[in-house]
Every structure is written in C-alpha cells, then in structure tokens.
Specification:
By secondary structure, the chain is an alpha/beta fold. It is built from 14 helices and 14 strands. The strands form four sheets. Strands 1-10-9-6-5-2-4 form a seven-stranded mixed β-sheet, sandwiched between helices. It has a three-stranded antiparallel β-sheet with strand order 8-7-11, with no helix packed on it. The protein has a two-stranded antiparallel sheet with strand order 3-13.
C-alpha cells in the first residue's frame, strides 16, 4: 500500500491579512473612525471602478447587500427568483424571507455552476429575476445566462461573494447583471472583518437602492471590534507558524474521537428563513481595510490561480477525481480549490494524518433541505456534487513548494483510499 507522506501541516483556510491591514485597523481606532469616516465613499468609488460600473454602496455584510438588491427590485409576494440549487443555503433562505419563491436550477456537472439549459427549462410565468452565483472564484456562464434573461425579460443579479476580481474575456464579474453583490467576510479573498458591497449599472434600479439605504443605520462599534478580534485570532491559529502547534493537534484529536466540531463551526448553520434584524451600512474601519485589500487583490488572485494550476496538473487523470472547469475566457480568483473525490470521508481522514486539513463542503444541494421542501425539484448534478465535493488548501500565504507537496499528499492518499 502506498505510504502517505507527512510534512508541514496545512490549514483548510487562511485569513487574507497583512501588516498594512493591521495598520489600517490601528488608524481607524486611533482616529476614532471605527464606524463613521471618509473612507467608505472612496472604497465605494474604487470598487465601482474595478468592476466597471457607475455605482457602488457598502453594507455591513454581503447578505445585506443581497437584501438591498431584492428590495430594489420591488417584486410582488410569490414572484420567482431563479437560483442555482448548489449554493449557500442563506441565499435562497433570504429569498423566502422576502416572501418570494426560490426557483431552483440544477448546475452543470462540469462547472458546478448554473446550467443555462436547465435555467431556460425552469422559467415560469411568475419568474422575475435570475441570480447567477460565481462559486469558488470561478464564474457562471454569464453570456448565455444574460441572453436567456433578456429573452424572458428577467432582471439579472450576480452573487460575487467568492469571486472578487474575476473576469470573463476581460469584463469584470459583477458588471454583467443589473445589480451584483460582494462579501468581505473572513474567508474571502478580500477580507475586511465583515462587510459587503452592492454595485450596479441600471440608473432606475440604483435610485431605488439609494432611497432604501437612506433608512439604514450604522454598525455597533463594539460588535465590529469584537469581530476584528475574532478574525485576528482565526488568522493567528491558521498561520504557518501556529497552525501546526494549535489547531492541527486539536483536529487530530477530534478526528480520533469522531468529533467534527470544526466542520460545524466552518459551515454556516441552516436556519429557518428570516430577514436580517438590523440591516446596516459599511463601517469606515472596514472601508480602510478594503482599500488596502484592493491594492493587493491582483497579487492575491494571481498567486492562488498559480496554486490552483499546480494542483489541477497534479490531479489530472486520477480515477474518480473531477475538477470544476472554468468558463471560456475567464480569468479567475481561485481562492478556493474544490474537487470531486471518491470515498470522501476516508480520504479526509488520510489527508489529516498526512498534515492536510480539508473541508467537506460549505455549499448545499438546497432542494434536499427540509426548509426548502415546498420549492424542491430534482437537481441530480447538485446532489452528486454536494456529496463528493472536497475543498483543498489554496491560501495566498502558501508557497509553491507547499502546494506541490500538498498535491503529492493528495495523490498518495487517493492511492491509499
């Protein structure tokens, strides 16, 4: 039996932080501009310029940016929003909480993104909008989705929470739809201690966005500073220096005891649909950090793209392993490295023993969840992907040598499984 090689333990995620980010945090606290300050407008301007649209508005989370988009559409109760079945459960949950109907669309097995043919077949007379989600730093087939939407008079929304800085044929993700939203949570390639952004190009829709946002409040500074503290701790224990000494031994012990506690912490709990209690706007501290992260974004994305290419080359041709394929002409933000594997549970155990922490899947086949039973429809590709998907480390802080060693450990573990 092939031996699984052990070397430096690698975490499933690392927080995208830098000394400049810490300086931005200190500056906001030192100048007492944690919530209010001049940097939000500048960050909004630079996000809009990066995406190539005229408008941007910062919110306290990506979810609140999505809420703002849905409210601006002025849909009627029972109207349908087409959404990929394979996605974060919070996305269709918010649609339901708004009194709308999620119309689930199966995904393309080759790309893990909304299948345009399945999209056209799923459209009903009550459908008013389609949400194209760009998962894992990859991209949906926006040209085909937009063409279908135009034929059926649908508004196009884009979920860019995991794909900031990506593009198709040189056109930025977020510029194809009428509105698009981004997330700056801990696990994203732009991490701003939370926060989100809504961008848009349609003037009529944007006037409604602005009118709604005028009624929103500011974030609680104490809660924001607590989030900063939690993120800094997460960044420390997943760092190259501390992960082998702190979190990795706990993971090994948990695996021996059959405890998947970290998985439960990393995967967002599926809760009944509910509207956010207090939708709020982006804080100045988050905007300061966002400006630093935007400067670094091309470097971050180029590095994770290179790492993904190393892993893809090493895993090509292994029986049972499938890697989601990018859209034609896409330049990607490969902050996440997802693959389909056989014997996932056993493979995760072997990889953890070899020093590789992995994540099973933080997306869902939403039609299989009880809270969406009234809107469930057969989505076999989504179901298969959710059952077999595995996330491998692909952090910005990894060296190329780490990624090559990771690829060899995955090959060895697959051969042993």
């Amino acid at each position: 039996m092939p031996r699984v090689v052990r070397s430096r333990p690698l975490p499933r995620h690392q927080v995208n932080l830098s000394p400049a980010v810490l300086q931005a945090v200190a500056g906001a606290i030192g100048r007492r501009q944690v919530v209010c300050g001049p940097h939000v407008a500048l960050f909004e301007q630079r996000m809009a310029a990066m995406v190539g649209v005229p408008h941007a508005l910062g919110t306290s989370s990506g979810r609140n940016a999505f809420l703002l988009a849905l409210r601006a559409l002025e849909l009627e109760p029972g109207d349908g929003v087409l959404v990929p079945d394979y996605t974060l459960a919070a996305v269709p949950a918010l649609i339901v909480a708004m009194g709308l109907e999620p119309v689930f669309v199966d995904v393309d097995p080759a790309t893990h993104h909304m299948d345009p043919e399945a999209l056209e077949a799923a459209i009903t007379p009550r459908c008013r909008a389609v949400l194209a989600t760009h998962l894992f730093g990859l991209a949906s087939d926006m040209e085909r989705i937009c063409a279908i939407a135009q034929r059926h008079s649908l508004v196009v929304l884009e979920d860019c929470a995991q794909s900031c800085g990506g593009s198709i044929h040189g056109r930025a993700l977020g510029s194809f739809g009428h509105l698009a939203f981004f997330s700056f949570n801990t696990g994203k390639n732009i991490s701003c201690f939370g926060g989100g952004m809504l961008v848009g190009r349609d003037p009529e829709l944007w006037s409604r966005v602005v009118a709604i946002a005028q009624g929103w409040g500011r974030q609680d500074p104490a809660a924001l500073l607590a989030a900063v503290g939690r993120t800094l701790v997460t960044g420390a224990i997943t760092s190259r220096a501390l992960f082998p000494l702190t979190l990795y031994p706990a993971l090994r012990l948990g695996a021996r005891l059959g405890n998947q506690g970290l998985d439960r912490l990393m995967v967002e709990e599926v809760t009944p649909p509910a509207l956010p209690a207090s939708p709020a706007l982006l804080a100045d501290l988050q905007a300061r950090v966002g400006l630093v992260q935007l400067e670094r974004l091309p470097q971050v994305n180029a590095r994770t793209r290179r790492h993904a290419a190393i892993l893809e080359a090493a895993l090509q041709g292994i029986p049972g392993v499938r890697i989601p394929q990018p859209s034609e002409g896409a330049e990607l933000a490969r902050f996440y490295m997802k693959v389909e594997v056989p014997h996932r549970a056993e493979l995760r155990r072997r990889l953890l023993r070899a020093g590789v922490d992995t994540n099973a899947d933080d997306m869902f086949a939403c039609s299989e969840l009880e809270i969406f039973r009234p809107w469930a429809r057969p989505c076999p590709a989504s179901s298969h992907i959710h059952a077999h998907s595995l996330e491998l480390p692909n952090g910005f802080h990894l060296e190329d040598a780490d990624v090559r060693a990771l690829a060899q450990r995955v090959r060895d573990a697959l051969a042993s499984a």
